[in-house]
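If I may wish for something, please sit down with the protein I am sending here and say whether tokens and residues agree:
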Amino acid sequence: MNILIVNQSVTDMCASFFMMVTKVVKMDMTGLSHDSIFDQFVCRIWLTSRPLWCLLIASTYGILVTALSRYIAVIYPMKYKIVRIHYCVFLCRGDE
């Protein structure tokens, strides 16, 4: 369970940091060219806020997984450890 809380904390911290940086640093788009790698990065990643949205979605999924883990622990307290192991394997593999 602690790893879920640590994961949620790190995800929220990264999302907060990225949101703060994007609001503080304003980019001027008039000088962007198609040749520079930095300009491509700014245009495709920074200005679209993709990392922020990915982190916010990851945060939402983290809350969902934590809630499901707690639900299973309350409903099946005796089987929680076995169910948690299978649940973690299911989440890590993602193909079952």
In short: Residues 50-75 form the longest helix (26 residues). The helical segments are 2-24, 37-46, 50-75, 80-93.
